[in-house]
Amino acid sequence: MRIEIARMHHDFDATMIYVTHDQVEAMTMADKIVVLQGGVIEQVGTPLDLYHHPVNKFVAGFMGSPNMNFLETTIEQVEAESVTVGLPGGGTVSVPVKGGKAKVGDKATLGVRPEHLIEGGGGDGEVSGTVLVVERLGGGTLIYARLTDDQTISAQIDGDSAIKVDDTIKLGIRNETCHVFTADGLALPQIDRHPLADVGRGVPAAH
Fold this sequence. Notes:
Elements: H1 2-12, H2 23-29, E1 33-37, E2 40-45, H3 47-52, H4 57-62, E3 69-79, E4 82-86, E5 92-95, E6 107-112, E7 117-119, E8 125-136, E9 140-147, E10 152-158, E11 168-173, E12 179-182, E13 203-204
Antiparallel strand pairs: 1-2, 2-13, 3-4, 3-6, 4-5, 6-12, 7-11, 8-9, 8-11, 9-10
């Protein structure tokens, strides 16, 4: 069905509005997406704008498949162009975002997508845990692991990985792929943020 609608859109060369609760349909079919929650426009942008630069946890959780990981954490350091947060197991990662009103000691959420984690560790920070579930999908493998602080994380790794349930796994985190959300669920602006990323945030939808 997605292919047929996409072909119609191309052939007719006309503006089309398609309403869906399926984020895969939204990502694959749209030139521009309007994300709504409770009748309020949360964010407007291209699929990749919303995927890379979500303005809040709601948009971040809606865009992308598998869903983004949300790790509860605490802010440990605030600079003009970076915020350092704690990682399960005692490490930290410094994320290139604007600190804004964030303060050391504030509760926060670290967002990182499964496909951006590095099997075996490395990157700018890493976490480790015990593998709970392994889903082998051929070209890729999706694993779920329990971290040292009992939070759960998912990672999309190589399809030929030999990882199995009950193995201990290290996952590396690249700071440029991370997001930091404050206690109210808003994303701290990324340093390389797209200028249109905030267009439409918090605007009531027309009826």
